[in-house]
Amino acid sequence: MEHTFDYLILGAGMAGSAATKGIRSRDPKGTIALLGAEPHPPYDRPPLSKDLWSGKKSPEQIWRNIEGLRATLFPGRHATAIDTRAKTVRDDHGDHYRYGKLLIATGGTPRRIAGLENERVIYYRTLDDYHALHDALHPDMRVAVIGGGFIGSEIAAALAMNGAKVALLIDGEFIGGRVYPRALAEFVTKYFREKGVEIHTGARVKGGSASDEGVTLQLESGDSVEAEWVVAGLGITPNVQLAQAAGIEVDNGIVVDEQLLAAPDIWVAGDAANYPDATLGERRRVEHEDAALTMGEHAGKNMAGADAPYTHLPYFYSDLFDLGYEAVGELDARMQTIEDWKEPFREGVVYYLKDGRVRGVLLWNVWDKKDAARELIAQRGPFEEKDLRGKLL
Ligand SMILES: Cc1cc2nc3c(=O)[nH]c(=O)nc-3n(C[C@H](O)[C@H](O)[C@H](O)COP(=O)(O)OP(=O)(O)OC[C@H]3O[C@@H](n4cnc5c(N)ncnc54)[C@H](O)[C@@H]3O)c2cc1C
To answer: What pTM did the predictor assign?
Structure first.
């Protein structure tokens, strides 16, 4: 079957749905379609590891509202090829779509452990993953969570709060060890243990075997860990294959310019985009909600003729039991860090610096300071410890 749309969006996720809003804010008439590989309308992903488990939200409350924007959604359709000359896209049902303007918002695919494939092993990313895990939940269920980054630590906390017996397997020494300064990472790890999460440090999973009852994970150390279910949060790889096959430049994501344009009439937004960050002065690929939503909306406006550079510096956030934070910019534990605590590890700010310039700010249980953090990151400095103490507290 052949379809024709003024605007075609590949990926009905967070960036794709935001783009629909962006297009409509400038073009009330153009036809819009979203092609989504998942069987659902667009939804918010962050609640999958937080609010759906704490009871703050129900699954009916996570849909992204695109009703009223007069966009046609093709759910359960996987785009398989882009022809940039003919300006067409093909999907896995054999349908063809002619487009005027195209957005690639295909997100990323969870990294997997070779050979560890079973219905009791969830590489956690989607609403269906949430339902599979939630349906399986029973008191004292034993779950092994692999990965001490954002997804692993959040889902471990969420499951523990729901009565599961959680073993968290991290390859380093501490939860969040790549992001938080050492003393904070140590505190978070101790905090998880106090909440009943069993932590296996230096645990690298090399494979495993499954039965009807559960999964046995084999570690590189020779140890093994048994669980009824396994949830893995090992990061994602950006979905760039469509762009690459169409001859569009790819380098840790799909390369775009400051207007989020990758090729004539083709824009990219969200986890899949490698874009030039105006404040930090370097290329980045950001895997967070604020980036997906602001980039998506911005790309949508540009598709409808705004032609403006994307200059927003995105923030991100996380909730771990009753700990929570927001963060702006680049956070890397290998940078110089300056910690400014009002109450140690409960309320404070961590500044991340390179050559005296603030590159990132972690607002630990400190709220409404994102814009102030952005202003600080935009300043050239150089900053010393005394300049930063008390600045955002
Ligand atoms: C469990 C979880 C918790 C998170 N929590 C936070 C948080 O607390 N804070 C935060 O800032 N960020 C969080 N994130 C990250 C945030 O959700 C992502 O950065 C955001 O969803 C990226 O948006 P996107 O549109 O680029 O990708 P997605 O939202 O993943 O959407 C991409 C969509 O494209 C579809 N697709 C892929 N290929 C094709 C194709 N060829 N054809 C058609 N469709 C295709 C995919 O199936 C998917 O539905 C979380 C992510 C997860 C998974």
So the answer is: 0.97
